[in-house]
Design brief:
6-stranded parallel sheet; 3 domains; binds pyridoxal-5'-phosphate; 12-stranded mixed sheet; 30 helices
């Protein structure tokens, strides 16, 4: 092949275990339950200290230790078995090859502004990115030819610190590329670049490749020689808040992304936009045809069938749109190339519903995609209503927006101990039959005591992790003792523990449970029935109300009467998310209905045997059956937010007081709550197969990708 990716970091490893280098360079390791052992065993302290970064770890781990392990029979047995699995993963005939051989050589191109693959590659901010990351991992597991496009954000996403007074501070961490699982794409020994024109200049992009199992992810990077200093920073950060840079970024993603795939010699047959940020790709694809003689109308018709658009936003204000003068500023060269006048061009995506006229990215995507979807059943309904005005002649139910409910990548989020338990009781091949309900009918064969023991273990593990984090933070100084308590040092590994971790946006109502603090204090401090609540989450740095919400929560957490049972953990990321969804007993979500398009963290919790306690919004509205968790509030619309908040809070307190807490503490002689475990089993059985990316990606293939190939 003429394209090369600069060989990733060279590791100086003993020959017998040299393949660890290969493993470190493919994110496949991140969803193998044995990986923490394969790397960690060589030096657990260092593995933890480096934040589970195998590339840096292999560079820094002591050579003598490596030589010792290269001769250690026990280690080598595990190593050999592991690499056997690794090799067979890449050679075995997969679901997609059997069911959809027509995708060979015609990959699906998947565009997203962010990808949440692992905490060591912080190019994601939250749910949208984690969903994209899980989509890639599942596509790899299914053997679906898929290539992905995003950005290499050199400054990563910010780390969060909370001041003593509860104010969010953001720290930027420029990434050290040598420690990342990325390699530069080159051609004839020079970096492969593509150009994107703006009216007064061109911007060049180089391309980094990340291997996600069998799926390549291409990350665009404008930090190249020849670009001016301003342009070199365009891809440095996620979601610039100034619209100027934002529109430029989105042009780079949509237009630059198509050109990058072309330059790589790829021939995608389907173009999937994860949210509207990438919607300029529709225009670039049309432009290609116009350049070879088509009219724009014909070009749009021809390309429409292969464009797929997933919307994630249930509120008009949340949508990405630009004032027309910005479009003039950056895209004035494009409409003549499409054979359009300015008016015709603007009309494609003009949002008549905005206060001032704007160019709307979701409208662009909706109009130029053959298939569009929301991310839960309710969100599909909400989207059809919201965008009905684009199809005034159609009844709401006929608006061409379907729904595919989100899922999570099971292996990525499941604790190793649970995998062991499932292998024992559901069969060693359970993961291959993850979305088959028959697999889950065997869950009742798991003895309650064994499942309870694993749950207890996971909670202890989370509490140890929390303590180590506080210890580290305290040792480094500048941390007030009250913050030490607020970070969970008084946590009791045996008490009922509720998790609330997500982005701090006001509609998620992190403070709903704090609306009657006295009632809450009473409830968490009852004798013999203690309750702990762990909060975590970042607000977007420009989101003042979000930051104020964190402060409000933090000020309550700090109060002495909580007895250290309310906790706020700084710097929510995928690593902390993993500990929380695996460790807590109850996962709470309190969005103001119907603002939660889907939500996914509750699915991660359910996989690990936590029970959901949530508003009947997004995915939970579909999953809840009365025996697999609890609801908050009613399935109805409210005329006023205040009324909705009051009703929901009352219901939340009552369910906690009367149902959740008594059930958890209703123990037999061995201190096990069998009724609780019955709910856990029901939750796993109903949620794991249905709310997995296994089901989700197959649904994308069946509803959108495969039909697009035929169009
Ligand atoms: C899963 C996940 C999210 C998304 O959670 P929601 O349920 O959509 O709020 C956000 N951030 C991280 C780090 C996650 O792992």
């Amino acid at each position: 092949m003429e394209f090369k990716t600069k060989p990733s970091q060279k590791f100086d490893l003993p020959k017998r275990i040299a393949r660890l280098g290969e493993l470190a360079s493919n994110l496949w390791w991140t969803w193998q339950p044995e990986s923490a052992h394969i790397f960690g065993k060589l030096d657990y302290d260092l593995w933890e200290r480096l934040g589970h970064n195998p590339i840096r770890f292999l560079q820094e781990v002591n050579r003598k230790r490596l030589t010792r392990f290269a001769k250690d029979k026990d280690y080598l047995d595990v190593y050999d078995a592991f690499f056997k699995k690794f090799d067979s993963y890449f050679t075995k005939k997969s679901w997609a090859q059997k069911a959809y051989p027509e995708f060979n050589g015609k990959p699906v191109a998947y565009f997203s502004m962010e990808f949440g693959l692992h905490e060591t590659l912080p190019i994601y901010s939250g749910g949208l990115g984690v969903l994209a990351g899980d989509h890639l991992k599942e596509s790899s597991d299914l053997g679906l030819p898929l290539v992905a496009v995003g950005f290499m954000y050199a400054q990563g996403y910010f780390s969060q610190r909370i001041s003593e007074d509860g104010w969010q501070e953001s720290l930027n961490n420029p990434l050290t590329f040598e420690y990342l699982p990325i390699s530069l794409v080159t051609k004839n020994k020079k970096p492969l670049t593509v150009q994107v024109e703006f009216p007064d200049r061109n911007v060049s992009l180089q391309i980094w490749e990340v291997r996600v199992g069998q799926v390549p992810l291409y990350l665009l990077d404008s930090n190249v020689e020849g670009n001016n200093d301003f342009d070199r920073l365009l891809t440095a950060r996620l979601y610039w808040s100034d619209l100027d840079r934002r529109v430029m970024q989105e042009v780079l993603l949509g237009v630059g992304g198509v050109r990058a795939l072309r330059a790589l010699g790829l021939k995608p047959a389907v173009w999937h936009m994860n949210e509207g940020h990438a919607a300029f790709l529709t225009l670039e694809r049309a432009r290609e045809l116009v350049a070879s003689g088509s009219t724009f109308v014909d070009a749009a018709k021809k390309t429409l069938g292969q464009n797929v658009f997933t919307t994630h936003t249930p509120v008009p204000a949340g949508n990405d749109e630009f004032p027309l003068w910005l479009i003039d500023k950056y895209l004035a060269k494009l409409w003549p190339e499409l054979g359009l006048t300015r008016e015709e061009f603007m009309d494609i995506a003009k949002n008549q519903k905005s206060h001032t006229e704007t160019f709307s990215m979701p409208i662009l995507a909706l109009k130029l995609s053959g298939g569009s979807n929301g991310v839960s059943e309710l969100h599909g309904e909400v989207s059809r209503e919201m965008w009905n005005f684009l199809w005034p002649q159609k009844a709401e139910k006929d608006v061409p927006i379907q729904h595919i409910t989100n899922g999570v990548h099971t292996a990525n989020w499941m604790a190793r101990r649970l995998n062991n338990l499932f292998e024992k009781y559901l069969g060693t091949k359970w993961y291959d039959h993850l979305d088959d309900p028959a697999t889950w009918s065997k869950i009742d064969t798991i003895p309650d005591a064994e499942l309870w023991a694993v749950r207890q273990h996971l909670k202890r593990k989370m509490t140890f992790y929390m303590r180590e984090r506080v210890r580290d933070r305290w040792t480094r100084g500048g941390f007030h003792p009250v913050q030490v308590v607020s970070s969970g040092v008084l946590i009791n590994p045996y008490a009922l523990t509720i998790g609330f971790a997500r982005r701090f946006a006001t509609y998620k109502r992190a403070n709903l449970i704090l609306s009657d603090v006295d009632r809450l204090l009473n409830l968490i401090n009852r004798p013999n029935m203690p309750v702990q609540i762990i909060f975590a989450g970042k607000a977007h740095p420009a989101d003042e109300p979000g930051k104020q919400l964190i402060q409000k929560v933090y000020r309550t957490v700090k109060r002495a009467e909580t007895g250290g049972r309310l906790i706020f953990l700084e710097d929510y990321d995928m690593n902390l998310a993993r500990y929380l969804v695996q460790g807590v007993d109850v996962w709470m979500n309190t969005p103001r209905r119907p603002m939660e398009a889907s939500g996914t963290s509750g699915m991660k919790a359910a996989i690990n045997g936590a029970l959901n306690f949530s508003v009947l919004d997004g995915w939970w509205r579909e999953a809840y059956n009365g025996r697999n968790g609890w609801s908050i509030g009613q399935e109805r619309e409210y005329a006023s937010q205040e009324l909705q908040d009051i009703d929901d809070a009352e219901d939340l307190y009552q369910t906690l007081e009367q149902k959740i807490i008594p059930l958890y503490y209703n123990r037999d002689a061995k201190e096990i709550s069998h009724e609780w475990i019955a709910m856990v089993k029901n939750s796993m059985q109903t949620i794991i197969p249905q709310f997995s990316t296994r089901r989700m990606v197959k649904e994308y293939v069946e509803k959108f990708y495969a039909p697009a190939l035929k169009k």
